[in-house]
Every structure is written in C-alpha cells, then in structure tokens.
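JOB MANIFEST
job_type = single_chain_structure
chain_count = 1
residues = 201
[input]
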Amino acid sequence: MNSRLIRYFSQFIKKKQFDELQITKEALEQIQKESLKAKKNIFLEIEIRRDQNLKGNIYIGYLQYPNDSKVLHEEISQFISEEDASYLASGLITFDESIAQFLFYPNIDLEWGHTPNPIIKRITANQMFTNDGKFWSSDSNAPYPELNQILELPSVLSLYASFNTLQIEFDSENIMEDVEKFISENLLTYFSNLYRRLDEL
C-alpha cells in the first residue's frame, strides 16, 4: 500500500479537549474527492510507525477494502487500530490543500497540582503515561530522554508515573518558574513523540 507521511506538528494546540481523534471537513472533502476519482468508497488508513528508539511517526494511506486488524470509524471515514487510536486521542487531522498533505495536530493538556506532601507536585495529562506505577530516583535512568532530562534537574529527587499523572519530588516546596516551564515543555515533547507507554516496553 502506498503511504504518505503525515507532517506531524509536535506543538501544543490550545483547543477544546477532544475525547477521541477528530477529522476536519477539509480532510473529509479530500476523501470524497478520492472516492469520486476512484469511483468507489475510499477510506483513510492511519498508522503509527515507531523507529528503533520507539519514537512514533504517523503515516496515512488511502484504503479501499477493510483490514481485519483495524477498526472502521464510519463517522470519520477512517481505519485505525484501537491501540493507535488511543495514542492519538484528543488530536485533530486536517488536510492542507496548498501542500497536498494531511496534517496531525496533537491536543496535549498538562495541569500542575499539589499533593499532601508540599515537596511533591502532581502533573495530570489528558494522555496516558502508563497503566502500572513506575518509579525512578534521580540516580536511575528512565526509558525516554525527556524523562531523564527532568531527572537530571538538580532540584528533582524522583519521578512516579501512574495512569495519566506524573508525581515529581523536589528538594524543596519552592519551584523556580523556569524549572516548571522546562518540565512542561519536556512532557509536551514526550507525548508528541508518541512513545510506547511505560508499561508496554
């Protein structure tokens, strides 16, 4: 099957929080054009393909026949595996006619919060870190570079990931603004890279 790479924009899009992958009318119109050209129903096949570092890229191809390993979402004319759909949840697919490419926009929300322990902060995301609890101290290695860069901060003592939350233990309850910004940007990159979840390694 001929596939074309969707240009992936790993940026933080402040839009409403979607519960599942959305597709715009521009993308739907492009599918309809391809269907008219082929004189049969055409669907999008969307797939995450990961490199040796487990970093994901999104590919798209036009599909004419069902694929047993994929689930058809008829309302948005796409075939995608349930696993890939869970990674792309809340994102948006559109079509840019000026470059003749489908584009994917992630919608990643991060919310900082407090815990009963004043030196431990909790970050809640609209994406999953892991289905099991995972812990790293500052002298250990996490599986992905963005998490390691957080662990390497002098003020960070440990990380604990569980479901869609990440707890960070600091050496004091006062966190510098630039440290908070650095951590947030690293987590946005982490989710944008579509790594496998921490319990799936």
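[summary]
Residues 1-18 have pLDDT under 50 and may be disordered.
The chain has four helices and 14 strands.
exit_status = 0
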